[in-house]
Amino acid sequence: MSGSNLLFIFTGSIAAYKACEAVSQLVQRGHHVRVIATESALKFIGPATLEGLTGSPVLSDLFERGRAMEHISLTRWADAVIVCPATANTINRLAAGLGDDLVGALYLAHDRAKPWLIAPAMNPAMWSHPATCVAVERLCSWGVRFLPVGEGRTACGETGEGRLAEPAEIAGMVEAALARPVRRLRVLVTSGGTTEPIDGVRVLTNTSTGSTGAGIASHLVGCGHEVVLLRARRAQRPEAPCREEIFETFADLEAALSRLLRAERFDAVIHAAAVGDFGVEAVLIDGQVYPVGGAKIDSRRPPLLRLKANPKLVEQIRGLSPTPLKLVAFKLTSGATADEAGAAVQRLFAQGAPDYVVHNDLAARGASLDAFPAGIHARHGGDAVHCATRSELSVALEKLLILSTP
Ligand SMILES: Cc1cc2nc3c(=O)[nH]c(=O)nc-3n(C[C@H](O)[C@H](O)[C@H](O)COP(=O)(O)O)c2cc1C
Q1: What is the pLDDT along the chain (406 residues), one digit of tens a residue?
Q2: Domain 186-280+310-404 adopts which CATH fold?
Q3: Residue 243, phi then psi, degrees to nearest 5
Q4: Domain residue limits, the chain
Q5: How far apart are the CA of 154 and the centre of ligand 1, in A?
Q6: Are strands 243-247 and 159-163 parallel, antiparallel or unpaired?
Q7: 156 tagged catalytic
């Protein structure tokens, strides 16, 4: 691969000398590289070196005379952007959405359908600091791709994780990001749990928080895809802005799915909502039937609820869409053995014909909020893709949808 436009952003790390070698390799492979350097970066590496390597002047100042609009034009020109080496400071600033310097303004203005890569380089304590961990997770959920950091002795003399990736690895990962087809998918994500009324104030619901659906929606938006989030009223909101429709009951969700799928064209549906298996058919007090969702029942007269099974929405989704789409369904088990889990996944494939089933088991969930040990199973078989967290799940699903959507 040759001839792509690359924006290479240097920040103030001692590993800047290694990044020069990565720039050199990318230039030798025929890419057009423009360099931005923060003020701190220029204390580690001189502009003459960077100009010599790329044949272009180095930009550093957001307000440089005659170049004030470069934060827009450069992002339009670039096929991919890489921050390398990326300091803890810059990673944290980008995750906060600050736009008061050239790097921050470039990040906010960049076209999110194009790859934005970050190759971190820092002391192990800085890399494992909670502020940095949260920033990395946040940026990942917005579609930023992180290059793996190396382990070993860092330039500051301490040992641990935080070393800048090797130059050949950096050049290879930039080219891999360029090779990955960037397509804008239209994705419908359902999220959160349905709520069935008992009387005017009491409901039957489930424990779904909507974090998985919100995380997936945010990640897809961050990657430049168009997302419609069909979200339960009390479910978690996505971090990234996207079009939302709200549901409460099973009937609301069924109607909204039917309307959206018939009227709009989607490339994929990620059906992460926890749809109630049962609805309230009748409220009985002393043998007398009271209207579901009616007046508040006297607390001294506990009712008997007659429940009805709700139809499986996942079975209807494909038939509602006039155009073919990829369907991702979710299967939650509780303390299942590997065989039981496998059988549950196969039953779901047989019922609703989803393309992928995300399986997770309640017993395997850890304490961490983002922890979500899950396996993504494909209808055509093969090994499941395993994820440890919701962020990993979002990244893996986006990748699968991009690669499998014609
Ligand atoms: C000798 C020296 C080496 C440094 N190396 C790193 C580093 O590898 N990673 C890092 O995150 N910060 C490092 N710093 C701190 C950053 O340069 C500092 O946080 C700076 O404000 C970063 O600015 P920038 O992100 O705008 O480039 C180093 C500082 C010094 C003095």
Answers
A1: 558 999 999 999 999 999 999 999 999 999 999 999 999 999 999 999 999 999 999 999 877 766 766 778 888 899 999 999 999 999 999 999 999 999 999 999 988 878 999 999 999 999 999 999 999 988 887 888 888 888 877 767 778 889 999 999 999 889 888 876 567 899 999 999 999 999 999 999 999 999 999 999 988 887 778 899 999 999 999 887 789 999 999 999 999 999 999 999 999 999 999 999 999 999 999 999 999 999 999 999 999 999 999 999 999 999 999 999 999 999 999 999 999 999 999 999 998 789 999 999 988 877 677 788 999 999 988 899 999 988 889 989 998 998 887 7
A2: Rossmann fold (3.40.50)
A3: -70, 130
A4: 5-179, 186-280+310-404
A5: 13
A6: unpaired
A7: yes
Q: Give the DSSP per-residue string, 211-275.
A: HHHHHHHHHHHHTT-EEEEEEETTSPPPSS--EEEEE-SHHHHHHHHHHHHHHS--SEEEE--B-
Q: Whose CA is nearest to atom 3 of ligand 1?
A: 14
Query: So what's the architecture of 5-179 in CATH?
Result: 3-Layer(aba) Sandwich (3.40)
Same fold, 5-179 and 186-280+310-404: yes
Report pTM. 0.63
Of 133, 140, 156, 242, which one is the catalytic site residue? 156
User: How many Cα neighbours within 13 Å face the side chain of 393?
Assistant: 28
Pocket test for ligand 1, best of 8, 10, 13, 39 (most atoms within 8 A of CB): 13
